[in-house]
Amino acid sequence: MSAPIIEVKNLVKNYGSFKAVRNISFNVYEGNVYGFLGPNGAGKSTTIRILLSLIRATEGEVKLFGKDIRTHRDEILRRIGCIVEKPDFYKYLSAEKNIALCARISGAAVSKKQIHEMLDFVGLKGREKDKVSGFSHGMKQRLGFAQTLIHDPELIILDEPTTGLDPQGIIDIRNLILKLKTEKNKTILLSSHILSEIELIADRMVIINKGEAIVEGNVRELLNAQEVIVVFTVDHLPKAQSVLEASGFAAYLAQDHELHFQTSLAQSAEINKVLCANGIQVYSMETKRKLEDYFLKLINP
Amino acid sequence: MFFKSTYNELIKIAAKPRSYLGLAAITLIVGLILVAMKLEGGLYISLLTGPFEQSLIFEGNVLNGNLVGFIILQMLIIHVPLLIAFVTGDLISGEAAMGTIRMLLTKPVSRNQIVLSKFLAGCIYTLIVLLWLAFLTVVVGQWLFGSGDLMVLKSDGLVVLQEGDVAWRFFYGFIVAFLSLIMIATLSLTLSCFSENSIGPIVTTMGLILLFTIIGSIEVPLFDQVRPYLFTTHMAAWRYLFDDPIQWKDLWFSVAVLVGHIAVLLGIGLYKFKRKDILS
What we know:
The structure holds 2 protein chains of 2 kinds. By secondary structure, chain A is an alpha/beta fold. Chain A folds into 2 domains: 6-217, Rossmann fold (3-Layer(aba) Sandwich); 226-299, Alpha-Beta Plaits. In chain A, 36% of the residues lie in helices and 29% in strands. In chain A, the strands form 3 sheets. Chain A has a 6-stranded mixed β-sheet, sandwiched between helices. Chain A has a 4-stranded antiparallel β-sheet with strand order 2-1-4-5, covered by helices on one side. The radius of gyration of chain A is 24 Å and the shape is elongated. The model of chain A has no long low-confidence stretch (mean pLDDT 85). Chain B is elongated, with a radius of gyration of 21 Å. The longest helix of chain B is centred in the middle third of the chain and has 35 residues, at 111-145. Chain B has one domain (2-274). Chain B is 69% helix and 4% strand. Chain A binds chain B through residues 49, 52-56, 73-75, 77-78, 80, 82, 84-93, 97, 101-102, 104-107, 147, and chain B through 1, 4-5, 7-8, 11-12, 15-17, 98-100, 102-110, 275, 277-279.
């Protein structure tokens, strides 16, 4: 495996007695979309701000492209495009002028034509000359992507890019990220508090809560490794229980009209077959991943 | 990268409506004074020359462009710093308030370069305001009132400067005034490094000017020690150039105090901004 593009080791950030980040470590490799998952206030934005040298770490080591961000800041930032929290722009300038302004100090020679192409790529064609003060949140988010990508960075850091967007806006931004991953092969660090978002886009992820990393690994492996919880809603609970026990399936929880099984997806199909074969009406069959359940517990304690 | 960053700062200043408020205010005030002097200037001159008419005879164009320019400068040099602070006090804190500071600091421009490019852009803006003031007071003043000897009223008497001896005094006077205004621009820029909103640095700059002006004008032995080192004591150092003979020692001391203030304040601003955690 090649050297990681982002290398975070034992990162700590304290604000007085408050510990915002506690000993977080993770690596992001080239071409990966890395999910940075955690509830609001978990320490995601603080970690991202340290990566971008917006704030200084109390302890720990942060290397990007194999170099320390504290000593090679400008060199590293030239290779990064980012949106930190919400994208903010100079409201009194047009979209085109805002991007030109960003490009000028991004260390790349960018022509007016390239700026227009970029605005077209993010779906802002025809709005180039409009002042940002008249833009909706979704349009600002698209403009944020334009300023992120204008200097063709190798690494893209996106901090909660879908926050505050309407459903269509969320889908558009997700598609844009997927486009960057598949068409442009960018390395992306994506922070979110929505598991499904990370599941759809990321290759690897780390879940953090209260400043600590809880789970880290390949998204597919993490999700598939977890046994699922299958909830069957049936018409006659005692009869269903006795039929299943006779067939060798024991529910770990039975309440009202629901039977909860901690099992695999393949076995849940077998359970359904047994119930139907014995004349038990199955009203619904709901699958929950343990990880999702666990994450929901984190964000809704 | 420094010059690209400075160019960006100038674009931002040029696009902000607040940048034109200072120029508009100066135009309005100077315009009103010029009209008033044109209509009632004779009365003003008689008040000025009245105490000396028993011992002196005044001949020629006393109410001339040089005198009008000098009077306007005396009146405005207290107000122009506030108009400058209105723009320069917003240069960093305004970015924090708008949220654009995050975007700016994730670009490959060092924090020192960002502060210095904002400082340079602030100086250029100050120069533009001062050049506009010079144009209105000296050029328009000469056009409306003609040229002539300049009478300068001092606490200990009247100084009359020959017509041919005035232009260079205005030129260097504006340079010293520029230094005073840069000092104010630096003060507000430095305060801007400590703030997350644009109002705080502007109000604090005005407050400090008022406070030090009051300290400088109260005749208390305790304040006598600090008065020579207060920047407000030297804000009107340009007036030394209209003495005859010029008190060069006093003028250079004032210049040194102003330059010292600029260097120290800029150093504090750079130190603070470099170590600032961007939490907004």
